[in-house]
Amino acid sequence: MEISASAVGIEPWSEDDFELLRAANAPELMTHLGGPEPEEKLIARHRRYVDLSADRTGKGRMYRVVTADTGEKAGAVGFWDTLWRDQPVYETGWTILPEFHGRGLATAAALAVIAAARAKGGHRYLHAFPKAANLPSNSVCRKAGFELMGECDIEYPPGNPILAHDWRFDLRAIPHP
Questions:
Q1: Model pTM greater than 0.85?
Q2: Using the 8-state DSSP alphabet, how is residue 172 labeled?
Q3: Percent of the chain with pLDDT over 70
């Protein structure tokens, strides 16, 4: 199955997307991320997403993922500034609601956010750090053209150490047609 970013739309995260974030906080989606967040942390995350989407300084952007065919809200994707090994880079992450799994939407969303980060023009590299045991997210990275740099120890959420894969995408590389 060929996957194209055109299978989804990405739209800036807004105040109206809190229920989408709540739906994405389901136990089956948070297994590799330390489990569902309590309400107060979910509210704080939503505020960070709204603020990041309003930022015009190049720090990144959060998006809701919508299906191209029906316009349904299917998940979230974004990119944001971070330091990795003392270098400024963008980091990315995504989630797709269970009812939309198996349709290539996570890969399409990753491709769309690559294009958005590339257009922003801030950093050379976009990194993703899925838990090593998270086979679906690692597969998304591979299908979207990220390069596996190896395993790494990170904390997510803070205080929760995990073994992750460091996937890197060169935003300055010439895109394939």
A1: yes
A2: T
A3: 92
